[in-house]
């Protein structure tokens, strides 16, 4: 078992919906106890073409390319998620999908709004990925910030690396979100306390990236909507804090 201070480390991150993936080529700086030295590259670059990062690739419904539309979709997802978590409590966690669950196609959230949580869908249709993110966010906020240090005082590196994945190859948004949630859980939580598409949200994300050098990024990706960043952090923080052991 390797346990190390959160002030030293390295990692990355990815974001996917069904089989689609947006990625940024980043190789973070390696931990001091790493067996091989890795050369860090410029944060978030180069990225794929704008078409690869089109929000339509991640959702069941067309969200458009404008940040405002993404924010509106996430806000709607938040409203639906508050209702679902308000009714189901911690049991709402069973709806979560993605690669950390046995429901990679998000069937749980797809069907929930038409079955047991039908009363929560009155606000309009919500993209499954966004709803998944929003449910994770509400579950994290419901649990509270107790025990979440802004910067984790120590990290079990075996658990951490198993969670956020390999340093090799493409470094994607999901990997970065998982990384920052491991090393800066309190700062990740503070992102979720801010209003969607607010200056406070942008500042909280900026602080999260700049304060977590282990993850090799110092600023937000320019080609990814902030709603995706926030959602990926919510999903990562939920799963990291709920891990067994």
Q: What form results from the Cα inertia axes? A: globular
Detail the poorly predicted runs: 1-64
* Main beta-sheet strand count, sense and barrel state: 3 strands, antiparallel
The number of distinct β-strands equals 5
By DSSP (H or I, 4+ residues per run), the number of helices equals: 8
Order of helices and strands: EEEHHHEHEHHHH
Percent strand equals 5-15%
What share of residues is helical? 40-55%
Quickly give the structural class: mainly alpha
Termini separation: 13 Å
Record the strand order, biggest sheet.
2-3-5
- Summed over residues and divided by their number, the pLDDT gives a mean of 76
Cα-atom Rg, whole angstroms? 17 Å
Task: Please describe what this structure looks like.
It is a single chain. By secondary structure, the chain is mainly α. The protein is 40% helix and 6% strand. The chain has a three-stranded antiparallel beta sheet. A two-stranded antiparallel ribbon has the order 1-4. A hairpin with a 2-residue loop joins strand 2 (15-17) and strand 3 (20-24). The longest helix is centred in the first third of the chain and has 22 residues, at 67-88. The protein is globular. The relative contact order is 0.22. Residues 1-64 have low confidence and may be disordered.
């Amino acid at each position: 078992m390797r346990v190390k201070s959160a002030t030293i480390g390295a990692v990355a991150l990815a974001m996917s919906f069904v089989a689609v993936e947006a990625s940024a080529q980043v190789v973070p700086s390696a931990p001091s106890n790493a067996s091989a030295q890795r050369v860090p590259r410029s944060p978030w670059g180069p990225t794929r073409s704008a078409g690869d990062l089109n929000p339509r690739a991640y959702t069941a419904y067309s969200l458009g390319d404008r940040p405002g539309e993404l924010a509106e979709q996430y806000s709607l997802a938040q409203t639906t998620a508050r209702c679902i978590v308000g009714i189901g409590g911690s049991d709402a966690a069973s709806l979560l999908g993605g690669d950390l669950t046995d429901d990679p196609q998000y069937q749980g959230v797809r069907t929930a709004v038409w079955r047991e949580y039908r009363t929560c869908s009155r606000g309009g249709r919500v993209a499954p990925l966004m709803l998944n993110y929003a449910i994770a966010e509400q579950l994290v906020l419901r649990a509270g910030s107790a025990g979440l240090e802004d910067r984790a005082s120590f990290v079990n590196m075996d658990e951490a690396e198993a969670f956020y994945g390999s340093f090799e190859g493409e470094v994607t948004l999901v990997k970065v979100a998982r990384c920052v949630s491991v090393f800066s859980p309190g700062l990740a939580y503070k992102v979720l306390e801010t209003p969607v598409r607010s200056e406070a949200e942008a500042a909280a994300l900026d602080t999260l990236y700049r304060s977590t050098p282990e993850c090799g990024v110092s600023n937000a990706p320019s080609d990814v909507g902030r709603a995706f960043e926030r959602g990926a952090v919510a999903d990562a923080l939920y799963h990291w804090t709920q891990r067994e052991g």
